[in-house]
Structure formats: C-alpha cells, structure tokens
Amino acid sequence: MRYFITGGTGLIGAYTTWRLIAAGHEVVIYDISPDRVFLQELIGEDAAKVRCVAGDITDLPFLLRTMQEAAPDRVIHLAALLGAKSEENLYRSLEVNCTGCLNIFEAALACNVARVVWASSVAVFGPRHRRVGLEGALPNDALHDPNIIYGACKSLSERFSLHYRRNRGLDILGLRFALVYGYGKDRTLARGTGGDFLTQLIDNPALGKAGRIPAGDAVIDFVYAEDAAEAVVRACEASDNRAVAVNVTGFRTTLRDAAATVRAIVPDAQLEVEDGSWKGTIHHYDATSAEREIGYAARWGIEEGFRHNIEEVRARAAQSVR
Ligand SMILES: NC(=O)c1ccc[n+]([C@@H]2O[C@H](COP(=O)([O-])OP(=O)(O)OC[C@H]3O[C@@H](n4cnc5c(N)ncnc54)[C@H](O)[C@@H]3O)[C@@H](O)[C@H]2O)c1
C-alpha cells in the first residue's frame, strides 16, 4: 500500500514510517523540515526507500501536487505546531494546526484517498480540576474543555473532521495521543514539544548525566513511541469508525514512581525529584474506544519501555562516538 505521512520524520512519524517500511509499504513523507538523519538512525539502510519531500502543509498548491503525484491509499497527518510554539504565535498556530488540517482533508478528498488518520491530542480535554465530580477515567466522548491554544486548535480540527466525514464522505479518524516518549524525543524539544522533563528522566541517566524532575506527584500517561506507531498503523487498517477520535493511552504513573523505575534500571542515576503536581491535565483517559474501534491496546509497560528507550539512547551514543 502507498502511504503519505505529514510530519513523517517527527517522533511519532518516524516510528510509524519504520513500521510501514518494515511491512513492505511505500512511504512518502511531507515535512517542513525533514530530519533524514533521525530516520536513518531509526530505520537504518531502509530509510533510502522513503521519499522525503520538504513541504509546508499550509502551502495547499504544493501539498496537492505532491499528494497527487504520490497517489496514496492512506494519508497519515501528524504535522503540527506543538504546545509551547502554539502559544507563542497564534496566527501560525491557527494556520498550521487548523487550516493545515483542512488542507490535508481537502487534498485527500481531491486525491480519492481511501482513508485519513490524523493526530489530535488529549489536550482537547483540558485540566482535571475543572471537571467537578469526575472520578476514574474521562470518557472518550467527554465534552472538550481545552485550556491551551494547541488543545483548542485540535478540538476545532476534530469538528472539521466530523464535517468531512458527515458532509463530504471522507473516511477519517483522529488519534488523541497521551504523552509519547521514546528515543528521539530530545530532537523534538526545539520544536516546542515541551518534553524536557522526559529527556531529564530518561536520556540523562542513560548517558550518566544528572536529571531534574519537576512536579514529582504529577500523574503522567506514558505511551511508548512504538505503541503510538502501532495505533497509527491499526487505525489505517480500520474503516468506518463511529468515534470521531479515540484516546491513545499507555500506562499511568507519577513522575516520582517513574524516576524510581529509571533508578531500578540505572542504579547510579542522579535524579532529583521535586515535590508538587501540575494542574494542567487529566492523565486518566478512557481507552476502551481505541480497543473497540481500531483494536489498539498499549503493549509497552513503563519498565519495559523505559529500559528499551535507555538502551536505544546508549546504543546510538556509542555509535556516534565510533
Ligand atoms: N508526542 C506527543 O506526546 C503527542 C501527544 C499528543 C498529540 N501529539 C500529536 O502527534 C503529532 C506528532 O507529534 P510528534 O510528537 O511526532 O511531534 P514532532 O514535533 O516530533 O513531529 C511533528 C513534525 O511535523 C513537522 N511540521 C511542523 N509544522 C509543519 C508544517 N507546517 N508542514 C509540514 N510539516 C510540519 C515537523 O517538522 C515535525 O517533523 C502532532 O500532531 C502532535 O500534535 C503528540
């Protein structure tokens, strides 16, 4: 099958590309700043099979032409302006995260693409403290209450996608990822992905450096990048979903317990964990819709995922020294 992936050399995109290439599919990546080095690191010599086009999703004529030439069976839309960058420049945020999304949906329709899978975010739901009386998991179809521009843009894009499904007949599904981690997270920091505490928690101990973890009592839903890619691939293989978007979750723990897990893997890890929590997010999302709609359930537990991530960081560092 032929796949067209926007943001395909980003964190989730590169792991997804890896999965698709390993399964023998053709992949064209459309990314504003393709990181071929990361792709090569992750996929090895098979990276040469991937066509990378440097393009902006807000440039509709070029996007359309590139998608037409690629003639994909599936479009995976992952390109976005993430958290901090979204807050810095609201016009650009609206342009990339909303108009860019519309451009993908229009282009997919124009190119007769059979199915579109795109990245929303659990940020559409906003903070837990505003959900008076909520106990346990937040349902998949809970009302959106975003408290950041990024979450508001993802929420609007979910509404767009519903319109394209109902009014234009596009087969489409959004994936609301919780916090995705994995080797390569450090490369995303400059793009404002806001995962610095993840590299402090995982990459620093792996490389013998000290790490500082804020808000040790905060509960995080950790999704390993290989599970995120699994969800994308499964979503591409499904069709005609009922839900507009499904929560893609992993395993929940406090940052303090996450640090203890890292210490069990790296006994001499120097991790300083601060007290306190964040009010910003909910951290407990219903996962049954993802299971029902696309057959996804997280496989990488926290201990297993962290261990693998640490091994990858060390292996790549050793390679770059040679
Ligand atoms: N990583 C997470 O924890 C997480 C959580 C929830 C949702 N998401 C969503 O998943 C998707 C992928 O996230 P990621 O973690 O891989 O981020 P990432 O920053 O690693 O990847 C995004 C990619 O999009 C590209 N891009 C940005 N603007 C573009 C534009 N205008 N045109 C073309 N390409 C552009 C970037 O160059 C980058 O390669 C995003 O839509 C994000 O909002 C991620």
Give a quick rundown of the structure.
This protein is 45% helix and 17% strand.
Number of strands: 12
Q: Give me the CATH superfamily.
A: NAD(P)-binding Rossmann-like Domain
Q: Give, in order, the helices and strands.
A: EHEHEHEHHEHEEHHEEHEEHEHH
Strand residues, percent = 15-25%
**Number of helical segments?**
12
Give the radius of gyration.
19 Å
CATH class: Alpha Beta
Which spans have pLDDT < 50 for at least 5 consecutive residues? none
Structural class: alpha/beta
Topology (elements, then pairings):
Layout lengths: L1 E5 L4 H12 L3 E6 L4 H8 L7 E4 L5 H11 L3 E4 L5 H6 L1 H21 L4 E7 L27 H20 L3 E6 L1 E3 L3 H4 L7 H11 L4 E3 L5 E6 H13 L7 E4 L2 E4 H11 L5 E3 L14 H7 L7 H20 L1
Helix pairs in contact: 1-2, 1-9, 3-5, 5-6, 8-12, 10-12
The chain binds nicotinamide-adenine-dinucleotide.
Structure commentary:
- It is a single chain.
- The chain has one domain: 3-Layer(aba) Sandwich (Rossmann fold), CATH 3.40.50.
- The mean pLDDT is 95.
- It starts with a strand and ends with a helix.
- The protein contains twelve helices and twelve strands.
- With 322 residues, it is α/β, with parallel strands linked by helices.
- 45% of the residues lie in helices and 17% in strands.
- The protein binds nicotinamide-adenine-dinucleotide (NAD).
- The site of nicotinamide-adenine-dinucleotide (NAD) has 28 residues, from helix 1, helix 5, strand 5 and strand 7.
